[in-house]
Amino acid sequence: MKTEELRYLQRLAELYPTIGKASTEIINLQSILNLPKGTEHFLSDIHGEYEAFSHVLRNGSGAVRKKIDDVFGHTLSNSDKRSLATLVYYPKEKIAYVKKKESDMQNWYKITLYRLIEVCKTTASKYTRSKVRKALPSDYAYVIEELITEKAEVLDKEAYYDSIVDTIIDIGRAENFIIALAELIQRLVVDHLHVLGDIYDRGPGPHFIMDRLMDYHSLDIQWGNHDVVWMGAAVGQAACMATVIRNSIRYGNLDILEDGYGINMMPLAAFAMEVYGDDPCQVFEVHGNPSNYNALEKELSRKMHKAISIIQFKLEGVLAKEHPDFHMENRCVLEGIDPEKGTVQLPDGSVHNLLDTHFPTIDWEHPYELTDGEKEVVERLSSAFRNCEKLQNHMQLLLDKGGLYKTYNGNLLFHGSIPLNEDGTLKEVEIYGETCKGKALYDKLEAYVRKAFFTVDEKEKKASQDILWYIWAGPNSPLYGKDKMTTFERYFIADKETHKEKKNAYYHLWEKEEVVNRMLEEFGLDPDEGHIINGHVPVHQLEGENPVKCDGKVIVIDGGFCEAYRNVTGIAGYTLVYSSYGLSLTAHEPFTSAEDAVETERDIVSNRVAVRYNPRRALVGDTDNGKALKERIQELKQLLDAYRKGVIKEKK
Ligand SMILES: O=P(O)(O)OC[C@H]1O[C@](O)(COP(=O)(O)O)[C@@H](O)[C@@H]1O
Ligand SMILES: [Mn+2]
Prior knowledge:
Low-confidence stretches: none
Bound molecules: 1,6-di-O-phosphono-beta-D-fructofuranose, manganese (II) ion
Strand order of the largest sheet: 7-3-2-1-15-16-17
Shape: globular
Mean pLDDT: 93
Number of strands: 17
């Protein structure tokens, strides 16, 4: 035996100091391998829609309802099953609703408790006892364990369960207990959550989503371009910060910054009032014209919207010039403005009339230079972002649980795309003088994201922070995946041709099997078994687009959590569930409200489409975790051998 091997086994022996202990662990691990694989749940492009997100987590994209169907089959009516499902999603609200109508609550409690216990039993049966125990609410851990574990030695099981349930009702704990069971079912139905990016922007509640993710039991996140621009804002990258503020104002969501994160917008408001006081700022209308704003607030929002947009265009011009290798010179738009004629010449040479010609802060000799007033706004806001504890905690979660991509149980997950050439080969991208492609490109960019937060070298910090802006909107950024971001054009030019953003080759080559196979192989995955799963581009269901590409090898799950994009998607998004039976895609109807969900008992799951059935039920042994467990078993067997051969001494 080599010395390193021996040293490793000696360390293992500290954890399993006897033949007995090592043997027990082998048996335990071996039994886990034979349990069904846990269910994975994939969500993407949540875009601040907290309520819809919360609903989908509660119902596991149909996984809860499927469990109820499995447990009760034809023994319960459809309407009873629907009621039970709603109770699992919204236990508190549903109980309150039932109380208004039901005359015999004692009886309802009893029936409901029995039904929930049955669902819990089946849901828990695919996990080890110790895993279930960890998921149990501490108040009721003991009782629930009693109720969901088969009691072989109790002769009159019915009487035993009856007495427990009756006691729960008698002592007035039925409601609490029902809530605890419902939440336990929600938790056990989904073993692991994947969030494929774009948690932030457009919708009103990204901070609530982050809070919920903070205490989610098992998760990973693939950063979206919108998440990365928030990371940029959090480290004080000024162009990213201006973008985040602009997006928040544009969607009438300043509350997120002010109330959610406690970032005071007064410096920007005061500046906007001073500089754009008489300017109606018509092209900076707030999206959706929020009804909760009064006329004055709307006017102020437009001024702030314009003020921060101009700041953003200036900062972007500076960055694009500073980093020619980013190839974002087409974002140097201000220099093309002819203030006299009221036109702009875009970097492609085309000239267009401007919809707004009032630029009081632009010095035409130096169009990208911030005025003193703008500088002060940027400095004060940047300090507020950098010092916001809650924002920093949320970003820390993105760093801890997230990355630019993930390989998990044979599948490749990322938010946007993989830069490709038209011939399907991986595209070489230059980052600060180094060219890389495919996985290496992803790895390099991810390292820069982390450096942006943690490096102490000032030069490296600035370079890394600027990369965050590149990832947000750069032409070869895998997360952005389009040739340019036409934000300026959308505000200032009527001609829609100038608004077009061309998607990179990935978005049509994803139908070509040999290209998809190559991408999977690039990330070390088996192309016969694996799938690529991504979000970022809304699936235009209304135009007949299918979220499943390349015969099921690529699955696109951005479908329209984002309300603003509902007119093209037509539905409220796709989510994916990967259980031991296979992969299934769920289409969701628009979510209205929790009250509506409780009253109408609607699942908002409009249909579930199988993408792939497993030929046999997948077991833990087939998963990545299973592979790790098998390795551990091998090591433990070597340890046993070492004990038996006397190479290592037992410590009794
Ligand atoms: O419609 P909005 O919110 O103004 O956003 C438009 C911008 O958002 C983007 O689509 C990026 O956001 P997504 O990552 O959600 O697609 C840009 O390509 C586009 O310029
Ligand atoms: Mn995106």
